[in-house]
Write a structure and sequence with these properties.
Elements: H1 3-19, H2 26-32, H3 37-43, H4 47-71, H5 76-83, H6 90-103, H7 107-128, H8 131-156, H9 168-172, H10 176-191
Helix pairs in contact: 1-2, 1-6, 2-3, 4-5, 4-6, 4-7, 5-8, 5-10, 6-7, 7-8
Length: 192
């Protein structure tokens, strides 16, 4: 994909995440990408083409994530759970933007997000050999993702601490030690 197309998709993601689907007009995306509307339309002929481009990016990033999951030395479950906590990686920004479109009722975005979930589940099933464990891990990962998205939103709104001043990132999300304990508990509970 060309550098300009990537810049347009980056701008589209930023607007979707920060301001929502209604604010992500072609004009706003073109301005955020430092292009004319005509320049944007040259690369993406319509708003539907822009959504399609973003969903293509999501598909590519999810496939790359599945590939990395299979090669992580700590194992697929550990990788999946750690990567479910939102940081500032491209995959996460694209997924957040896609979810914004899903919440706005975009069917293509909903199918793309569900397709990514199916791919992660299939990869977990293949690597664990246990469909029930794979589903549990997927759901725990979804919970970690949801929790971290709430923390990010709270931090962005200036409300990222509890009544004692402890950052939500610390009080809500597991650190590496706690995540290892969660993983150990999951695996031992499944063996019991």
């Amino acid at each position: 994909m060309s550098e300009t197309r990537e810049r347009i998709l980056d701008a589209y993601e930023r607007i979707l995440i920060a301001q929502g689907e209604r604010a992500a007009t072609l004009e706003a995306v073109a301005e955020a990408a430092d292009l004319s509307k005509g320049g944007l339309l040259y690369h993406f002929g319509s708003k539907a083409a822009l959504v399609e481009g973003l969903m293509g990016r999501l598909h590519t990033l999810a496939a790359q994530d599945v590939e990395r999951m299979g090669h992580d030395v700590r194992g697929a479950i550990d990788y999946f759970l750690r990567s479910s906590i939102i940081t500032a990686q491209a995959k996460e920004q694209t997924f957040l933007a896609a979810q914004t479109l899903v919440l706005a009722g975009d069917g293509a975005a909903a199918e793309a997000v569900l397709s990514a979930e199916r791919e992660w589940l299939r990869a977990l099933e293949e690597r664990t050999g246990d469909p029930v464990l794979a589903k549990i891990v997927l759901l725990v990962g979804d919970g970690l993702y949801f929790g971290s998205s709430l923390v990010l939103a709270a931090e962005a709104a200036g409300a990222g601490t509890d009544e004692d001043g402890v950052p939500a990132r610390t009080s809500i999300l597991p650190d590496d030690t706690r995540l290892a304990e969660i993983l150990e508990t999951l695996l031992s509970a499944r063996k019991a």
